[in-house]
Design brief:
With 139 residues, the protein is mainly α. It has 2 helices and no strands. Helix 1 packs across helix 2. The longest helix is centred in the middle third of the chain and has 93 residues. The radius of gyration is 43 Å and the shape is rod-shaped.
C-alpha cells in the first residue's frame, strides 16, 4: 500500500506500523545495512515524513469528514437547484405570456383609436351638413 497508494494509510486509525517501518528503514540506512547513493537526503526525507505523519493524518480525517458532509448536503442542494430551475422556467413562461398579452392590447388600442378618429371625422361631416359650419371634433 505504501508504494501504490500511500495516502490510504492516512485514513487508518493507527499509523504506527508505517512509522515503525520507516524507522527501521532509517536505522538500516544509518547502520549501513541498506546502501544508497544519497543516504543523507533519504534519511532527511524519512525524518520529514515521520514528523509530518500525525498532522497529515489529522488533515486527511478532517478532509474526509468535510467531504462526507458535503456529499450529504449535495442531494438537498441538487433538489433545491432543480426546484429553482422549474420556478425560473415557469416565470419565464408567464413573462412571455404577459409580453404577448401586452402586445395584443397595444394593437387593440391602436385599432380602437383609428376607429374613434374615423367616427369623429364622420360625426364632424354630419354636423357640418346639419348646421352648415365646419367643426373639428377631438378627444
Amino acid at each position: 500500500m505504501i508504494s501504490d497508494e500511500p495516502w490510504k494509510m492516512l485514513y487508518e486509525s493507527d499509523v504506527s506500523p508505517y512509522s515503525s517501518l520507516m524507522l527501521e528503514i532509517r536505522k538500516s540506512i544509518d547502520e549501513g545495512k541498506i546502501q544508497l547513493k544519497d543516504s543523507d537526503r533519504v534519511v532527511h526525507y524519512l525524518d520529514m515524513i515521520l514528523d509530518s505523519l500525525p498532522e497529515l493524518q489529522e488533515r486527511a480525517k478532517t478532509i474526509k469528514s468535510e467531504r462526507d458532509s458535503l456529499r450529504r448536503n449535495e442531494s438537498g442542494l441538487v433538489s433545491r437547484a432543480n426546484l429553482l430551475e422549474q420556478k425560473i422556467s415557469q416565470h419565464d413562461e408567464e413573462l412571455t405570456k404577459g409580453k404577448q398579452n401586452l402586445e395584443h392590447q397595444r394593437r387593440q388600442i391602436i385599432e380602437k383609436r383609428r376607429e374613434l378618429e374615423a367616427q369623429l371625422k364622420e360625426a364632424s361631416a354630419i354636423l357640418e351638413d346639419l348646421v352648415g359650419q365646419k367643426y373639428l371634433l377631438e378627444y
